[in-house]
Amino acid sequence: MSYEVICSSDNREEWLKARKEVIGASEAPVVLGVYPWKTPFELYAEKVSQSIDERQAEAAYWGTQMEPLILSRFAKETGRKVERGGMLLRSIDNPLMLATLDGTQEDSALGAGAVEIKATSLEDRWEDGPPPYVVAQVQHQLAVTGYSWASVAVLFSGRTFAHWDLERDDAMISELIEREQEFWWRVLTNTPPELQGSAGEKQALAKLFPEDIIADPVALTADFDGLDAQRLSLLDQKKDIESKLEEIDNQFKMAIGEHAAGKLPSGVLYTLKITERAAYSVAAASYRQLRRTKPKK
To answer: Across the beta sheet with 87-91, what order do the strands follow?
Structure first.
């Protein structure tokens, strides 16, 4: 066995505390920079923060509730012996790495393996199999457990089931270990990763520096003179771009008129819908929002 059991995920307070002090499998794709919804800086801010956020997003909550059903379907589909996971595991060889498996499985030919469960509506991201951020998560799990393989079982939009088997990728695991060690060095030395300009980073900065404690201004380097000029130039460009976008949107709205939508020769659909705020407005028509929908393949 290449891991030790830390606690059960049912003990959420202890589970969150343990995860904060190292890197969990779901954080591995963030460290690698392949997670679409969080940057390395945002994760860094979470790790150096003194507080522990116990909130769970609504989608994550329902995904957790659906795990037993998806796991049961996976067992029935594959005929393998499958058991529910839920224990927080720490790698003995690399104590920085944690993983909470959704499930484990046993195959007569492959032996023991991990099972990762997903419930998502983003089916287009899975056209070529599990996307990079899921692969990174699974390879992290294999690094912790020492297993040679794993499966990903996914339910799309509550109606379409699919699953894939993934082999252990030792080259990727070596990169994961190296990148995670580098990331943790940043946490320990208060050396933040580069900012990427996401909305999440804006929120992370607000949490890191909620108030001005030191009244005197900090002396910025000459590099910030260049950033100041660049910022002013971008603000001017932003005004021009926003104005041009508004002009184009108005042309679409005028052409669509009283119809609910307009369809391009390419199949792209532009719809006009009244927003929730506009539903209570006297001038509701002025708040009809333009939305673009790509044709299904």
So the answer is: 3-8, 87-91, 98-100
